[in-house]
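Batch job 17 of 40 flagged for manual review because the log was empty.
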Amino acid sequence: MSGFVDKIKSHLHHEPRSDTVDSDAVPAKATAKVNGVVLAETDNYEFVEGNVYFPPSSIKREYFSASSLHTNCPWKGQSSYYDINVNGMLLTPAHLIIPDHATDLIPIQGKELKDAAWYYPAPFEKAARIKDFVAFDKRKVDEIAKA
């Protein structure tokens, strides 16, 4: 029981847990897609706090542009964000336009999928293994992990 309590306390304090990467639980391949277009694909990723972090070499950079958003995590450090633009079409989550279409994306001129991915360019020591690795907002990007 004490191990369970320690895991809960660790999670509540946003500290890295020793069980964030479990080779038995992590599928062999992870893919991130938007409208069927592959944004990232790898079999060498990190799984932290429920998010798949893709190595920088697995990202298809042509779909990413820097966002001005930065957020802070108490144990990982400051994150930077990317906007996503696929095939020249700017995308927006459908639920912003049509209720009950929370997972669909609709192309709209003049809009883009804002702040859809993030990374830690200079993480704190405890999160060094995810330096520059990219995670995706699951509300905006179809993240698929396959065995």
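Reviewer: the log was empty due to a logging misconfiguration, but the result itself is present. The first helix runs from residue 2 to 12. Unflagging and moving on to job 18.
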